[in-house]
Amino acid sequence: MPELPEVEVIRRGLAKKLIGQTFLHVQRNDKRLRRQSEAAALAALCGKTVTRLSRRGKYLLIQVDDGQTLVVHLGMTGRLFVLPASCPLPSHAHLVLTCQSGQRLVYQDARRFGQLVLYPAGVRPPELAQVGLEPWSRRLTPEWLAQKSAGLTRPVKNFLLDGRFIAGIGNIYASEILFAAGLHPQTPAGRLSRAQWTAVIQAGRRILAKAIRAGGTTIANFADCEGQAGLFAVQLQVYGRAGEPCPVCAAPIQRLVLAGRSTFWCPHCQPAAALAPLRRKSYQTAGG
DNA sequence: CACCCCACCTGCGTGC
DNA sequence: TGCACGCAGGTGGGGT
Q1: Are A243 and A252 within 8 A, CB to CB?
Q2: Strand C–CB A111 distance below 7 A
Q3: Stated in angstroms, how far is A239 CA from C11 C1'?
Q4: pTM for this one?
Q5: What is the CATH topology of the domain spanning A4-130?
């Protein structure tokens, strides 16, 4: 689930159900997460009313009326959903917040790569300081990306996965965005032209927005308490499709591993020839 | 610095 | 049926 679109879909769904709800009971199991507050600290949510749900990159922020903020990260397998009182808890339910309506907010995470940290009022969560620009930020421009990537030789795929630059892009959408932008995933980040960065920004915004819209149909399943099985109805063009024909040109989709992560691309639509290192020079001096 | 590798976990699909 | 293995949507600490 957990790239920006999925977190945003969850945020919107939870906002409808949780804002104004008061937590009457806090239940935390003894399994460690990647980052966590102690169970005793989480108990401070008891009696507090949800005022706001926001998102920063892949982090979900649940704010309550005394100013505390529960910062949630879903890791690889984390899920957040609201269960009717009658529904049994699923396995790997690490945090259960019972509302005055009887509904329960559940954090479930099989692999436990996620985070549940409660910060007091006035404290700025330090992990958010590392989060880069939101994809729709006005500050996200081809010039900004050119500056940040100047001199970097790492593949542009790895650059997109580095949330300190653009926040929220994960392994699936990195491949999808580069396909839409017509860029070979191994292109050195520092060699992209201004036009290529523009294509990355535009493809990124379009694909992420489309995924959010598609994910909207998914959250309803959570509401109906059948959230276990195959969720995201996102139309993936290349991810996970090695050997299948490219939806644009029918060439077989290729798979390669970059920074230890599966990467999918079309050899015809994303030719390595797009490297064009010559074009970079004038652009680098111009773009700063 | 920049970059890569790997650990952190459980579950699922595949092939023997 | 059982088991070993590879793979999985993320992050960040540590090594090169």
Answers
A1: yes
A2: yes
A3: 21
A4: 0.91
A5: N-terminal domain of MutM-like DNA repair proteins (3.20.190)
